[in-house]
Structures are given as structure tokens and as C-alpha cells.
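Data availability (excerpt). The following record was deposited with the supplementary files.
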Amino acid sequence: MAFFDSEIVQDEAKRLFTDYQQLMQLGGDYGKFDREGKKLFIERMEELMERYRVFMKRFELSEDFQAKLTVEQLRTQLSQFGMTPDRMFEQMQQTLDRMKRELGPG
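Predicted structure:
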């Protein structure tokens, strides 16, 4: 079975995309959130990032040609911005860490 033919892969890809879209839409109002709302938003973003990181690792470990091609396409696209997948995740985490610091202790 090809990597992208897997129902599990298709379902997780769909859920990741939908969850990401919803968080980005919600994030537009981040400045209006109270402290607890901001904490919850950051937690959801961290959870989504971890799911995405695991999803990408599945691509990298797969022997499927399409999965390998997808990883290479992502690397090529990111390299145009001087980035790697690891660096992308690092920067996303740095942004979330900064958002946490701005909330202060507690």
C-alpha cells in the first residue's frame, strides 16, 4: 500500500490541516484573549506542532517514493528561505516560548 493510500495517513493529514486552519483563524484574535485564553492557545499550538513533527517523521522514515518526494519538496521549498525542517520547528518553538514569557509566571 502506498503511503498516501493509508486511511490513517489521510485522516491525520486532514485533521492536521483542519486544526491548523482553525488555530490560525482563532489566532487572529490572540490579542483580545485573556491570560487563560492565551495560555490555552499556546498549548494547542504546541500540541499541533508535535503532531506535525511526528507526521513529518513518518514521511522521512517511509520507504514510499511519494513520501520521500514530499519530504524533498518540503526541504527544497524551505531552503529557498534558508531554512530546514528542523530550523522551522525551532523557530516555531522559539515564537511560542516568547509568547509564554510575555504572559509571565503562573
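Summary of structural features: The helical segments are 7-27, 35-61, 65-79, 85-103.
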